[in-house]
User: What shape does this take?
Amino acid sequence: MSKIKSVYYCQKCGFESVKWLGKCPSCNEWNTFVEEIVSKDRKNTFASVKTDKIKLLHEINVCEQERFVTKDEELNRVLGGGIVPGSLILFGGEPGIGKSTLMLQTALQNKWRVLYISGEESEQQILLRAKRLPYQNKECYIVNETVIQNIIPIIEHIQPQLVIVDSIQTLTTNLLESAPGSVSQVRECTAEIMRLAKTKNIPFFIIGHITKDGTLAGPKVLEHMVDTVLQFEGDQHYLYRILRTTKNRFGSTNEIGIYEMQGMGLRQVSNPSEILINHREEDVSGVAIASVLEGNRPLMIETQALVTTSAYATAQRSSTGFDLRRLAMLLAVLEKKYGLKLYQKDVFVNIAGGLKVEDPATDLALAVAITSSNYDIPISQKFCFCAEIGLTGEIRPVNRIDQRISEAEKLGFQKIFIAQNNFKSLTEKSNKIEIIGVNKLEQLFQKLFKG
Ligand code: TYD
Ligand code: MG
Assistant: This one.
């Protein structure tokens, strides 16, 4: 007879303990242990190991699994070319970012037999959402169910080609008595889904919520269990959403997908640079275009700066989309090496479009934008910049320069300013865009502002 047992789980990392602990020995967090009732018989059964399951590597039959190529280019790209049959894909993102919308869209866009399991929204709500989307699929089944044991027969009955679970935090298993969304429930349900996916060779998308600090709610173990982890990011106030892979057993994790939230669902943005740059009638000061890489994708983004005389004793520095400490470093370099008097000025910088950039190749454009605003001299919209700035004021090369230049060329820029040292890594010489190598900031500023 199975006895009711309780186990304590760290809600942060999933560490298991038989007694309550104040501090988790695994992730060092305090007060994260919660008691969860486990009524399952937790005996190990070693007796039934089948030796015929063991194979030599070369004996394994090669069966090239064909991926399901979706109609959504961006999704295909982040998944590494399509959905691998039998794969388990965790799809995380903050509430309201558009996870359910993207998943429903995927269910309707592709003419497969799809099962959409929703524990969050009623059938009516899903129907209302589906009506907003410009896609239709006659074989999209919707079921409101949260108990995993009831879901299994539904899957067997429908035999879907794709299953979407919205969301893992609402699922529960009969075997455990803890609350939905708790570590043991999330883990057990994911394990059950994993077994289903692998035995029936059906791909599963599992939607997972993200906690305030940006990690997937539920334990880290969840990420270890699944094949692919996708994250949906973006600012609620902006329309752009970025789909990122943080783990992929079947492809690279460097790819990103870009979407725009519209009244009719999420639209794929295949040429993001065109939207991220404001095309103005005339040149304005304080704006410079940078060529950055997001994952493997080159993007042209607009960096903006406003430099004004400070009304207070301590000047303000404010930054949106760019690291504030890196901005402080850039300002110090401009001040010390180029003699810009910025200590009495307020400096505000912004990356247009609500993007957050970490690529150091943004440095040069931002330094140019700041100087341009300071002197109130505009930079031509046909110029773009792509280099890192070192502490000594030297212009440093960046990676994948060829890719960045060809993107700039594609978008019709006339000149791109790169580090002189970057010329070495150039393989193809382009003729449409003029590539200008720069060694020192002074040299560049001389060209741009004193010419
Ligand atoms: P949703 O997919 O419900 O987010 P999540 O599942 O990640 O919590 O997205 C909800 C938001 O998207 C909501 O604010 C409304 C907006 N939205 C649109 O702007 N256009 C649309 O066509 C749809 C369906 C939703
Ligand atoms: Mg949702």
